[in-house]
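To: structure desk
From: M.T.
Subject: fold request, one chain
Message: Could you run this one when you get a chance? Sequence is below, nothing fancy, just the single chain.
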Amino acid sequence: MTITVRELAYYPVKGCAGITVDSARVGATGLVHDRTFMVVDAADGAFRSQRTHPSMAAIRVEVLCDGAALALSADGVEPLRLDVDRDGPRREVSMFDRPLGAAADQGDAAAEWFSDALGVKSRLVRVAPGFDRDGWGETPGKVNFADAHAVLVASTASLDGLNTRIAARGDAEPVPMNRFRANIVLTGNDEPHFEDRVRRMSLGTTELAYSVRAMRCNVPLVDQQTGRRAGPEPVRTLATYRREPEYKNKVSFGAKNAVVREGVVTVGDVAEVAEWLSA
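Reply: Done. Structure tokens follow.
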């Protein structure tokens, strides 16, 4: 059994469309450029996400000049090329009602663009110099604007197992992996959810360690191409076999990991598992 990297993706603006790549640098907070930016409420700095604004999924982001600029596009608004201000005016921001501190505001042009795209007054912020946020779990690690952890790992076996169960219901289509917005997708092991048991692994020159299972909200209900809710799957079926009593009966899919050695990971790399949790 050889486990390999099947897909890699990062999400420059939290909640917006991801970018698939063949190879990625991995820093202490995850794939470089992942969740470096966040859209927030213009009034109180609270983060915006697909939970309440599913159309964010269809906002496309391109990282230019190694992060010095962004290209933004979405249906119904003119494209915008934005020069990134890494040290912009500070704005206090929060996530899940918890303050994250001061982020670097990206200016009025970005604010107007996202306000038009989402139909609500918004600002775009970036992780500011010196930002230092801890994750939590078995290996907490560091994190940017992801919900709480650096790297989300899923597997083709987990998706295949889920889609087999969905098909058995006979009233819904299979779901693609992008519903789960993973950073790293593994293949080569036929055991669904084997990623839950991986406690430490090397991928290329990077090493990851397990933090927690990934609890899912309503974001997997959103069609990532159209930005529209397309539920009740996959959450309905996950609820039949992946409820987590210790997390208020939420459902899980995928595993969140911390970065314990920075490096480079490439599609096709072998995942060398150094430590497993017993089945």
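Reply (cont.): Helices lie at 108-118, 156-169, 235-238. Let me know if you need anything else for the meeting.
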